[in-house]
Amino acid sequence: MPASSVFISPFLKPLSPRDTPEVHFEDSPMCLPLGNSSKRVSCDTISTSQFFTPRESPLTSPRRLASTTDSADDADVPTQPTGAPTSGAIVVAPKQPLLSFTDRPDLLPTEAVLRRIRDALAAKKEAAVAEFLQYAKGMNGWIDCGTIKGARVQRREFHDGLPPMIRGTVNFGSKFTPWDFLDFLRDWDAKKATDDQFGQGACLCEFDYYTAVAWMMFKGMMMYEPRDFIQALYTHVVAPGTVAQVAVSTDDYPEPSGLPKRKAVRAKMILAGFLCESLPDGTMDVTLLAQVELKVKVPNAVISRMPFFLEQPAGLVKARKYMEKNGVKRKTNRPTDYSGK
């Protein structure tokens, strides 16, 4: 358990048809220009069939094909951009046709709402990243649990009612870079293939590569119902060769409509994420950190010793094996160096 359907909630106030910006699909994200700014807000696509009937599906309806001709925005994606970190097997997702949603303005939130969400998330990013790095790198209070299914595991207990925290590290060898691992995290098919408890996921809104909002649902265990999360995702370059992705639950994004009807309990992602560190020997360590309020009536002291809790970092071993076998699907907006924020 933790740390993308054309989907922006119709709950938000729609734009008028003449104000609705043209939408492009490149590597399956939906890009919404913010006014005259060159920056775009994007939303990844997962299976739209669960939100639309075949006749209404924006990915299959011929009415919504605006153009299939090449343009400046439609230029072929290079297999590896100049200056991009080299790695193992890289798979570039195929280019998508140009689509238009001017006849479905109810799918698009207003620019004002998007700006408000973006500003709220930006104001909280620095504190979230700082707290994550403090626990991901600190040594005080951690209890060594040894090696569990290939991962070096530690746990930390709190005495103020907060749930326990788990931390684990796996070495990924020299084949991959931090950007490769982050591409793996953004691939829902890969997530499902390596996490038996993962049910579904959707990127609700991606403002840029470094800031997004996502929804994830995990299957129920024993007598417990599924749990889902709406979380802010922050990507932060700590240093050249070291990148963190931090996840925290957020109330800044309106409750989405159109999510699967299956009943799930809204859990809280207090603090979670991954730290990818390039080492002097040319290999890369990936550390998982997670502190989650699952909304269960089980004492925290018991949870901190349960197998499902202690074995979470072992998912990194599955991730490494999956990447070694299948490579990674490189996102078109992935950075080419470590100069980002």
- Which parts are unreliable, with pLDDT below 50 for 5 consecutive residues or more? 1-105
Helix and strand content put the structural class at alpha+beta
Order of helices and strands: EEEEEEHEEEHHEEEEEEEHHHE
Distance between the termini: 28 Å
Largest sheet: 10 strands, mixed
Shape label: globular
Strand content: 25-35%
Helix content: 10-25%
GO molecular function: lipid binding
Organism: Vitrella brassicaformis (strain CCMP3155)
Domain START: 183-304
Protein name: START domain-containing protein
Could you describe the 3D structure shown?
This protein is an alpha+beta fold and 341 residues long. The chain has helices at 111-137, 178-185, 188-194, 300-303, 307-310, 315-326; strands at residues 24-25, 30-33, 40-43, 65-67, 90-92, 98-99, 143-148, 151-156, 165-171, 198-208, 211-218, 227-239, 242-249, 265-266, 268-278, 284-293, 328-330. Helix 3 (188-194) crosses helix 6.
Give a quick summary of the entry:
18% of the residues lie in helices and 30% in strands. It has 341 residues and is of the alpha+beta class. It has a domain at 120-330: START domain (Alpha-D-Glucose-1,6-Bisphosphate, Chain A, domain 4, 2-Layer Sandwich).
Secondary structure: elements and pairs:
Blueprint: E1 24-25, E2 30-33, E3 40-43, E4 65-67, E5 90-92, E6 98-99, H1 111-137, E7 143-148, E8 151-156, E9 165-171, H2 178-185, H3 188-194, E10 198-208, E11 211-218, E12 227-239, E13 242-249, E14 265-266, E15 268-278, E16 284-293, H4 300-303, H5 307-310, H6 315-326, E17 328-330
Parallel strand pairs: 5-17, 12-14
Antiparallel strand pairs: 1-2, 2-3, 4-6, 7-8, 8-9, 9-16, 10-11, 11-12, 12-13, 13-15, 15-16
